[in-house]
Specification:
Number of domains: 2
Strand order of the largest sheet: 3-2-1-9-10
Radius of gyration: 20 Å
Largest sheet: 5 strands, mixed
CATH topology of the largest domain: Nucleotidyltransferase, domain 5
Pfam family, one: MreB_Mbl
Strand content: 25-35%
Number of strands: 18
CATH architecture of the largest domain: 2-Layer Sandwich
Order of helices and strands: EEEEEHEEEHEHEHEEEHEHEEHHEHEH
Family: Belongs to the FtsA/MreB family.
CATH superfamily of the largest domain: ATPase, nucleotide binding domain
GO molecular function, one term: ATP binding
CATH class of the largest domain: Alpha Beta
Protein name: Cell shape-determining protein MreB
Helix content: 25-40%
Subunit structure: Forms polymers.
Amino acid sequence: MFFRRKIGIDLGTANTLVYVENEGIVLNEPTVVAYSIEDKQVLAVGDDAREMLGRTPGSIVAARPMKEGVIADYKTTSAMIAYFLKKALKGRVFWPEVMISIPGGASQVEKRAVVAACKQAGASNVYLIEEPLAAAIGAKIPISQASGHMIVNIGGGTTEVAVISLGQLVVYKTIRVAGTRLDEAIIQQFRKKHNLIIGERTAEDVKIKIGNALIEEGKVRKMEVKGRDFQTGLPKIFEADDKMIAEAINKPLKMILEGIKEVLSQTPPELSADIVDKGIVLSGGTALLTNIDRYITYYTGVSSFVVEEPLFCVIRGVGMAIENLESFKEAIR
């Protein structure tokens, strides 16, 4: 009997996670590819490539092939998926069945690009599952019931806001603002207010260590930030505090909040009543931002909570769906 491995992939803008049937999550690496400009040869993928971000010589490019949740660079994405499949299956890629998560409002063109990239990487069957559904399955929300659940999956490139009932998305919105936008806002703030130029990696570290969505009085967190002085061009160390970072990320957070409010305003009244009872579920890597649940609760009036291990929520859902294909037939494209 020829046995096909079942694999789930959460192809994110910031991180890619791979789930192998009966083994669980086997891979969690940054969605970064380094390739040489001359012959477009892929030199490094994942962790190794992330180390190169902002540190490469002119002949090598380290870039993120996914932009805002969709494939921006098709060839590189395909090479990256092939690399991740090989690594997850320890080199034995025999036409596995692959399920991959896509943004809720992905267009037909975007869906076809994902399927084609997976097939080129060696997959036999490719199933697509919408990210909010995968996140809801991973958060152990009983999505097949006739009651409304609201999930907000805040990833690296997109924020998916969805109201789910009877295993389907009732109202959903993909906001192309998430973790990467917060990093960009932090870079801008340092440049404008403090004449300091910092890189992507530094901005992400600052966000993780002292990023805060809702500042509480009395507590101040600080950290040293190293970069280059905009005027003199010399290296410089600056001490940043959480208040300054909160001010920097305020605008992108507002855009996420507006998206949540928009979905709430389009939700049928019966389902709205369910959401008020159960609260808003937050998942995705950016849900780890300090106080983001309190921020959303404060401005929407609906209690919000972050699921445990929000970063693994989507991939757990994709894994459960591919292992139980029959029971999740409704959710799969």
